Every structure is written in structure tokens, then in C-alpha cells.
From TrEMBL:
Name listed for the protein in its UniProt record: Beta-galactosidase
Top-rank lineage group of the source organism: Bacteria
Coiled-coil intervals, chain numbering: 38-65
Keyword Coiled coil: yes
InterPro entries assigned: Class_I_gatase-like (IPR029062), GH (IPR017853), Glyco_hydro_42 (IPR003476)
TM regions (residue ranges): none
Gene3D superfamilies per record: 3.40.50.880, Glycosidases
Organism: Aquimarina litoralis
Keywords on record: Coiled coil
Length: 804
């Protein structure tokens, strides 16, 4: 008690006894307060357990309460560890810049914060069971997942004869065995992965060049990480592209030129390809038919090759230069693109190269060159070499494992952001692999690095558009594939997390993502060992190349029992109504927004403009789709009513011809102005315009977003349904996104509504023929009036029955 010893001499003798008494009482109260939270939680655990017994005796399913109980007990244990290891927790808070200055306070407060949140989730569990027992609410039994008997179909995961949605945590307690039921269970998820002893050091990861020794033999220890995975649970395998062993660097000095943040080598290097071929073939061979690969081989972790000056990736050595192999492949690509006509290239580039073999290019490139033919050619080539690299990986894998499913953990922001020097063709890679893959985020608040409010904050409770926009695009490209978010960032990102994350945000974000196509997700991240301590990588001195990992623990889900419990609760609800969710999300997409990577490469703000169009249409009750040259060429045109072309000046001749062919076959196109489609990829004016031919070609009369939106909506002939939703939230902007479909299990309609706005909305449901109908909240069995309120971040699943 150092403070007590210092304080006593400063107190006058007459007050010493009184002061001592006050100090002892204060100290006692402080300790008593700590004990009280734990005692209160333990008392409520007893209450919930008794209610569960009573409910079971009445054949009421208590799966949801079993999960709440498990998290409550775990986090009481975690709180005690955090209290005992205050210094370690303080250090971990200090690794995250946002919390660094308050790390002492946060570490001191964390144990009681966790205990209070345990009490909150127990209170919710107790209330729900009491309401069930007295008949105030009803609910559907949870669909508990049998992790060892999940089958993978073309566009859905199936368990016990019903579709399901899966959730787990990525990078889960690295070092813990897959058989540890404290970590792999019904509450946290039980998706297996290869390499249960993976660490941050590249050489300790399987499925990368370190697996192959210089003499051509395989490292048996790394191989065992793959071969010794129990063949029981569904899982995934990640190909780790981070680095290469020293013997390869000595043999090939250029092997790291043109590396990127998570692809630590030159993908064009011949030695690298030779080694990777052997590694990936061996990987496919020894894992063929194993359940651990049923959720696919992830071909890469967050690939990108940003190659413009001033980008944040430069300081992490991304594309600081390119190798002679990359340059020579670029020369060959240009020769083919220009049909070996160096004069035309020189005219476009304003250069004077004597031949294609003499071409040079400065990488990283000055972003002032955006919109020039040089910029376009490099960015398009950079994307094409990315496609070629992943095609190579997939082909090598399937040479030994022909049935291997694949996907790529691509960051969704690479599609929705305006940057285009990153080498990722979102459409081509979505089309290439047999599953849709991504690393998509939703954030519940502002990036702490932002010096001013972010644009979405004006209208919305959280940042939803990156995921919705990118997912609708991917689902348009590949509508019949399973969709896996292999590193979900809904609970935290490097720039956002909130220690007291609202549970309605958690529910809303997972519901939204699933509605847009997500079949399985692995949230970032679970790092608690069973005793409450953080995983091995987070102990001792942290020095990671990964700029985000060191600070990932502070403020994460590992400190928030209410958050992880709510993730499990919303997954129970989604799985209880999986057929209804699939019916809502697999609807026809009657309105297609035309997307051109050509314009996205050339224009500074193309994707920003298109995101604004997408947002304006998002609250009208229909599933939005996209059209591209490939979609128009390959897919059935009856899948949509109209294609909308908006602020898309630059298109290739092939893109233009695809649109004209669609009109020739009777299609409908609306276009914002004659400026769209007016230029080719090099900014040269096109000498022809679209002709209506056998179809309908409609130009907007007014060149603004509002009028174009109205034109798009009236052009949709197959609108949502005769059920409509009207909204009043006190502003001119709608905030409730909704979908409705015929009930897949019988009469009536199924409707879901999510309030993305910052305020409560007054809603009203109506139908076209003005017949009477009833509305039931499917999540709690309660009846709703036609007019009702929905709070910010609120989620509803409704059954609408027409009166007979």
C-alpha cells in the first residue's frame, strides 16, 4: 500500500485515526465493488441455469442461452486474468495508437468492464427465457451446426438437409490444437484450417516456398502441419505468399523486386514459379479429398501491387521497383496489344522508343499520369499479370487435385475505391475461382486517423456501402457460387474499433452481409487462449512486419463478451430462417448498372460517382445488379430488364460492341448523356454511337443524379412486388433498406428491413391492391401494425399474410 504509507505523515495527528478509518473503508469498498460484479454475474448464471432447466422441461430450445452461458463463464475467467496481469494488458493497449495515451486507465478498467458486459448478456438471456415461458414471445429453435457433416453445394452450404451460414474467427488462437474444444466449438465456431502451429514468421508457415529445401526435398515439419490436420471438420487452406528462403534469394537476386505487402516476391520470377509449382502441387496432392479444404484453398492473402507514387504501401516496400522479368513481360504485352506497331505506341505515349524491346517504364508511376495512355497500359497490364499469376496457381493446384475449390482473399475496398494501380481485376478474379472470396469490412464508426467526419456519417449509423456495393457486383459476376469472407472486418479494423461496440450494430452488420450473399465468414480475430491469456504471438516484445497485427488485440472482440455473444446469436437467427434469407437474397436483379474497368482506370473519381448512383438506388426495395462486357456476353439477358450507363466516358471497343449487341437482341439501355461511351481506353473520341436497333435506347433528359435515378426506376418492368414500404425519418434521404419476396414455404410474403440511418424511422407497409393483411415479426412471433417504428441499426424479418 505505497500510497497509504506516503499519505499518513501528511495528516495532522488529531485526524490520523479518522483518516486511517476513511482510507480503510475506501479500500474495502473498492475491493468489495470488484467482488460484487463477479458475484452478481455468478448469481445471474444460477438464475439463467434454473430458467433453462424449466424451459427444457417444457420442450423449449435453449441453444441460444447455452451460448450466452458459455461466454459468460469464459469472460469471467478472462476478466480475472486481465486483472492479475494488468501490466501485460496495459502493454497490449499501448500497441494501438488510438488507445496508447489511455492505456493505464483502460487496463485498469477492463476487468470490471468485461464483468459488467457479462451481466448485460445474462440479463438479456434471462429476459428472453422469461418472455418465452410466459408466452410474451415465441421463437424458432436454433439450427445447431454439425461441424463434421457440412456439404458444399454449388451456391450454398448444407447441414442436416437445410442451408446454413457459417461463422468463425480467423487466425484463431495461433498455437492451439484444432481439437481444443475450448476454442473450436459451437459458440466460437469450429472451422478447421491447415497449420495449427502457425506463427507470424514465414518459415513456420506451411504452403509457401519455405516448404521446399534447396536440394528439392520437402520440409517434413512444415508438411506435417498440412497432413496431420484431423479429417473431421470442414475447413480451409491458405497459401501463404509472404516470403522466400535465403537460398532462393542467393540464386535469384531479383526475386524480391516488385514485391508487395503480402506477396513478398516477384510473381514473374522463373525460379519462384518453379518452386511454387512444386509446393502447390504437393499441397494439392496431400490434401486431396480432405474436409479441411471443403471451404477452398485461399490462393492469396490480401493481394495487391499498388504502383503509384505517394501510396501508403510504398513504405512497406510494395512495388518500389520492378524486375527485368516483369519489364520484359510488359514489353511482350504491349507488343501484342499494339500488334507490334511501335509508332502507334509512341504516338499514344508521346515517346520515341525504337522497338518494343527498348521500352522502359518508371515504377512507381507518377499519379499525375492518370488518364494518359501510358497510365492505362500499365494499370491494365498490372491487372492482367495478376490474373495470369492466379491462373497459374490454380492450374498447378488442380494438376494434382482437379476438384479443388479456390477463392482469393481480396480486399473489397480495391473495387469501390478510386485507386486503380493495384493490379486487381475484381471481376476477372471473381470469375476465375470456383468460390467467391474477399476480405470485406463494415465499420461502426469513423477511422480514428481521419481528421474530419467521413462522408457516410452525414446520413448513416455505420459504413455499409463498401460491402454492399462490392458484394452485389461479385454476386452479379458469379451468381451461383458460394461466397466466403475469409477475414471479416465487421468487429474491428486497423482504423476503427469501439471497446463498447453496440450489439445492434453487430446484428445489423452480419444480417446485411448475409443478405448480400455471404455464406461463411471468419472474423478478425480470436486471440485468447483457454486460460484467458493472449496467444503466443501477442506475448513478449511484438515486432511484426504486418502493420496491423501488433495493435489488433486492444479493443477487439476478445475484450467484449456482449459482441461475441451477439455474433453467435445473430448467426442462430440467420440459420433458423436460412431458406427465407436465401429467397430474399437470390432474387432476380432487374436493374443492372454498367461497370467498366476502363473508365475506373482512367478517371480520378469514377468509383465515387458510381457509388453515389448505387447508394441512391439502394433503398428502393430491389436487388441491384451489375453488367459488364463479360456479363452481357456470357449471361442470359432475361436476368434483367435494363442496363444503366452512367458517367462512363472510357470504354474499349469490345465493351461498346457488347452493349450494341445487347440492343440488337432487343435489350433496353438508359444512358446519362452522349459523353458516356464517347472515348476509347486511350481517350480518343469514338466515331460511332449506340443505335437502338431492335431494342430501346433512352437518353436522360436532365444530366443529374436525381433524374437519372427516376429514369432507372421507371425502366424496371419487374419491380419488387406488390408489397411496398414507405419511410419517414425526418430527412429527405431514406435510410431503411428492404427486400420482399414470396414466402418459399407457403402463402404470403417474407420481408426484411434494416435501418442504416442514425435515427428511428417511421415505416408503413402497404400493398398495391389495398386488400387487408397481417404482419408478424418472425424473430419473436409478435404481431405488428401496418405502421410501426424501427430504431437505428434495427433489423426485422417479417411474414406478411393477406387476408382471405
Amino acid at each position: 500500500m505505497p500510497y497509504f504509507r506516503i499519505l499518513i505523515p501528511t495528516i495532522p495527528k488529531a485526524l490520523t485515526k479518522y483518516a486511517l478509518f476513511i482510507l480503510l473503508i475506501s479500500f474495502s469498498n473498492c475491493k468489495q465493488e470488484e467482488i460484487t460484479y463477479e458475484k452478481e454475474a455468478l448469481s445471474k448464471i444460477e438464475i439463467l441455469e434454473k430458467l433453462m432447466d424449466k424451459a427444457k422441461s417444457q420442450a423449449i430450445d435453449v441453444t441460444r442461452e447455452e451460448t450466452t452461458l458459455w461466454f459468460a463463464k469464459e469472460f469471467l475467467k478472462f476478466a480475472n486474468w486481465d486483472e492479475t496481469n494488468n501490466d501485460a494488458v496495459e502493454k497490449l493497449f499501448g500497441y494501438y495508437e488510438k488507445y496508447e495515451t489511455d492505456k493505464v486507465k483502460l487496463a485498469d478498467e477492463l476487468p470490471d468492464f468485461e464483468r459488467k458486459k457479462v451481466i448485460e448478456i445474462l440479463d438479456i438471456g434471462i429476459k428472453n427465457l422469461n418472455d418465452l415461458l410466459d408466452g410474451t414471445i415465441t421463437r424458432k429453435a436454433a439450427q445447431k451446426i454439425d461441424w463434421q457433416n457440412i456439404t458444399v453445394e454449388d451456391n450454398r452450404l448444407v447441414n442436416k438437409g437445410r442451408p446454413i451460414f457459417l461463422h468463425d474467427y480467423f487466425s484463431k488462437t495461433v498455437g492451439a490444437p484444432l481439437t481444443d474444444t475450448n476454442i473450436y466449438n459451437d459458440h466460437l465456431g469450429a472451422i478447421y484450417h491447415t497449420g495449427s502451429h502457425l506463427y507470424e514468421v514465414n518459415k513456420d508457415r506451411p504452403s509457401n516456398p519455405y516448404m521446399l529445401n534447396e536440394d528439392g526435398t520437402f520440409d517434413e515439419k512444415l508438411l506435417s502441419y498440412i497432413t496431420e490436420v484431423p479429417d473431421t471438420n470442414i475447413g480451409f487452406l491458405l497459401l501463404w505468399n509472404m516470403g522466400v528462403p535465403d537460398w532462393m534469394k542467393k540464386k535469384e537476386p531479383e526475386i524480391e523486386k516488385g514485391r508487395s505487402l503480402f506477396t513478398g516476391f516477384d510473381v514473374d520470377n522463373p525460379l519462384l514459379r518453379e518452386v511454387w509449382s512444386k509446393v502447390i502441387k504437393k499441397t494439392g496432392e496431400v490434401t486431396k479429398g480432405k474436409k479441411v479444404t471443403d471451404l477452398g484453398y485461399i490462393l492469396s492473402n490480401e493481394p495487391h501491387w499498388f504502383s503509384e507514387k505517394g501510396h501508403w504501401t510504398y513504405k512497406f516496400l510494395e512495388m518500389n521497383s520492378i524486375s527485368s522479368y516483369t519489364l520484359n513481360k510488359f514489353r511482350s504485352w504491349l507488343s501484342e496489344k499494339y500488334k507490334n506497331d511501335i509508332k502507334t505506341l509512341n504516338t499514344n505515349w508521346e515517346s520515341n522508343f525504337k522497338s518494343f524491346e527498348k521500352i522502359t517504364v518508371e515504377i512507381p508511376m507518377d499519379k499525375a499520369k492518370r488518364g494518359t495512355p501510358l497510365w492505362y497500359d500499365w494499370c491494365r497490364y498490372n491487372m492482367d499479370r495478376g490474373i495470369e499469376w492466379f491462373t497459374f496457381l490454380q492450374n498447378e493446384l488442380r494438376s494434382t487435385n482437379p476438384e479443388a475449390d479456390t477463392h482469393i482473399k481480396i480486399m473489397a475496398k480495391l473495387f469501390v475505391d478510386d485507386y486503380r494501380s493495384h493490379g486487381i481485376d475484381y471481376e476477372a478474379l471473381t470469375e476465375l475461382t470456383s468460390m467467391i472470396g474477399d476480405d470485406a469490412k463494415i465499420t461502426g464508426g469513423r477511422n480514428y486517423r481521419s481528421k474530419k467526419p467521413e462522408k457516410w456519417e452525414e446520413k448513416y449509423a455505420y459504413y455499409w456501402s463498401e460491402l454492399a456495393h462490392s458484394y452485389d457486383f461479385q454476386e452479379s459476376v458469379s451468381p451461383n457460387k458460394i461466397h466466403i469472407n475469409s477475414e471479416g472486418h465487421f468487429l474491428s479494423t486497423s482504423g476503427w474499433r469501439e471497446l463498447d461496440t453496440p450489439i445492434d450494430y453487430v446484428r445489423s452488420s452480419f444480417w446485411l452481409a448475409t443478405l448480400h450473399g455471404m455464406d461463411a465468414s471468419m472474423s478478425w480475430f480470436w486471440a485468447r487462449d483457454a486460460d484467458g491469456s493472449p496467444e503466443d504471438r501477442l506475448e513478449g516484445e511484438l515486432n511484426f512486419f504486418d502493420p496491423a497485427l501488433a495493435g489488433s488485440y486492444a479493443g477487439s472482440a476478445n475484450m467484449q463478451p456482449h459482441v461475441v455473444n451477439e455474433v453467435s446469436q445473430v448467426m442462430y437467427d440467420l440459420n433458423s430462417f436460412s431458406e427465407e434469407i436465401l429467397a430474399l437474397r437470390d432474387q432476380r436483379r432487374p436493374l443492372r448498372l454498367f461497370h467498366s474497368e476502363t473508365s475506373a482506370i482512367n478517371k480520378k473519381h469514377h468509383m465515387t460517382e458510381h457509388s453515389e448512383l448505387y447508394e441512391s438506388l439502394y433503398f428502393e426495395g430491389l436487388a441491384i445488379g451489375f453488367a459488364t462486357e463479360k456479363i452481357i456476353t456470357k449471361q442470359d439477358h432475361s436476368n434483367w430488364d435494363v442496363i444503366a450507363v452512367y458517367k462512363t466516358e472510357f470504354v474499349t471497343d469490345n465493351e461498346f460492341d457488347a452493349l450494341q449487341s445487347y440492343l440488337d437482341k432487343g435489350g433496353t439501355i438508359i444512358i446519362d448523356s452522349s459523353n458516356s461511351l464517347s472515348k476509347n481506353e486511350y481517350g480518343q473520341l469514338r466515331n460511332k454511337q449506340l443505335s437502338s436497333s431492335s431494342g430501346k435506347l433512352i437518353y436522360a433528359k436532365e444530366n443529374n443524379l436525381g433524374s437519372f435515378k427516376k429514369l432507372a426506376m421507371i425502366s424496371v418492368t419487374d419491380n419488387t412486388s406488390k408489397i411496398k414500404l414507405s419511410e419517414d425519418n425526418g430527412s429527405i434521404n431514406k435510410s431503411c433498406t428492404w427486400r420482399v419476396t414470396e414466402n418459399p414455404k407457403g402463402e404470403g410474403y417474407i420481408m426484411t428491413i434494416i435501418n442504416l440511418g442514425k435515427t428511428t424511422s417511421d415505416l408503413k407497409i402497404s400493398n398495391d391492391n389495398n386488400t387487408s393483411f397481417s404482419i408478424k415479426n418472425m424473430l419473436n412471433g409478435q404481431e405488428l401494425d401496418k405502421s410501426f417504428k424501427l430504431s437505428s441499426k434495427g433489423v426485422l424479418l417479417l411474414h406478411i399474410s393477406e387476408s382471405k
